Amino acid sequence: MKKSKLFLVxxxxxxxxxxxxxxxxGSDSKSGGGSKDSKQELxxxxxxxxxxxxxxxxxxAVGLNVINQTNEGIYALDKDGVAQxxxxxxxxxxxxxxxxxxxxxxxxxxxxxxxxxxxxxxxYSWQRAVDPKTAATYSYLFDGLVQNATEIIKGEKKxxxxxxxxVDDNTLEVTLVQxxxxxxxxxxxxxxxxxxxxxxxxxGDKYALDSDxxxxxxxxxxxxxxxxxxxxxxxxxxxxxxxxxxxxxxINVQVVQDPGxxxxxxxxxxxxxxxxxxxxxxxNKNKDxxxxxxxxxxxxxxxxxxxxxxxxxxxxxxxxxxxxxxxDKQSYVDTVLQNGSIPANGLVPKKFxxxxxxxxxxxxxxxxxxxxxxxxAKKAWTQGLKELGVTSLNLEFTSDDxxxxxxxxxxxxxxxxxxxxxxxxALKNVPFKIRLANDQKQDYDFSLSAWGPDYQxxxxxxxxxxxxxxxxxxxxxxxxxxxxxxxxxxxxxxxxQARWDEMxxxxxxxxxEDYAIQPLYQRAKAFLxxxxxxxxxKNAFGPDYTFKTTYIDGK
Length: 555
What we know:
By secondary structure, this protein is of the alpha+beta class. The protein is 28% helix and 20% strand. The strands form seven sheets. Strands 11, 12, 15, 16, 17, 18 and 19 form a seven-stranded mixed β-sheet that branches. It has a four-stranded mixed β-sheet with strand order 1-10-9-8, with helices on one face. Helix 16 runs antiparallel to helix 17 (496-503). This is Oligopeptide transport system substrate-binding protein. Keywords: Peptide transport, Protein transport, Signal, Transport.
């Protein structure tokens, strides 16, 4: 996908810069002019259920994508991946020290029940996100960024002491700990969206458990979702201030996990866009409606060092090293995926962030780490078994229950058992929601995981594995790694180049010194999309898509 000039500028100027999530930006269909069809209805698929539609708690691609259609924050990403005013009338006024942001909110923004969206809604939402009682996965995005967030998350200060205040109903003031040029892009992320306190508290534990227990302030409202249903829909929000720009009358979404079913639904005009797995990508690659979306999402293998309070065999570095280096990644993408995805020899993806000095890609500057090396893997395996005092190991590998995930699991199982004598790998393929729950409880041995960037900076990936990060659910800890992350977020935050140079040191520790994770591939999506679908915006980071300006023309 093409990289916009604005992205290159951002890469040069960011001082700091997560799903879900693409390199470049823009639309994945051509913008069509002329007349539009009388029936504006779009039919889409998802590969999993919605785990949560609560903007504070959602931490997966499906849930974040839903919230991005139905709710809106201070800024929203445009087709070039640049944060533009949404819930405000103009960009913030920023103090000389670049720590205090003052926002003027729109006076015509309303909730779907007619209540005005006020500065207090942002204050409540942000305080809820950092409150330890909420246990929000994304609370770490505030950590070390917004004043007092670190202390609040640790339980040392009250949520009311967070550096955000409502000066009046339409004026919001935010105080940061350090300057952070990536802050604008964070404000387009759902965790930073407002919440109507009176409504949320009136629902209590039932808030956001179905489409009737949510208030919306974005282009669409979610309908026909009961919390576990495999289908849902979006309809226009008639209270949305910019409703004239919304062209679709309805978006129908259904969960489709079988790749053959998705193609059949597409061919029978029941889907307007269908994700393709390997064999179907090969079969359809010469069609006019076939396309590939390159992404900045990286899939990797997580090695859990502690399960149910006890150390696992993966607490042994040589065992982790053996598992990491014994997978032929090129063979994996060539034979299993076949959709344009590429091997990942690093956590931070290609074509995502760039050196502020000379615009070199982070990936090129760090170089390849975690490269397939069977000889080294076998040596580490022998040494690891010796250190554990065993001659064999039985491990459980967890992944999703989609057809593609099952094929991936079988390929990896074959690689490990073939290359590492004495290893038996049991496969556990479970629904996405269950895998997330097991991950949160750290109830797994090793698993296939993924991360799509939340903002444009290496830290959106690197921060995940700092000790204590809410996403570090595998008991990994290294003071040297933590120091790099802390330096980048603290003392070096105001020195763009020094901060960048510091972050270059992180991956070699994480991946080649500790073998804490093993990057597997950088995702691309092969799909079929009807040519009459116009202006379906694919986002560069954060939630995958924006449907606000999408329309049907020429069906």
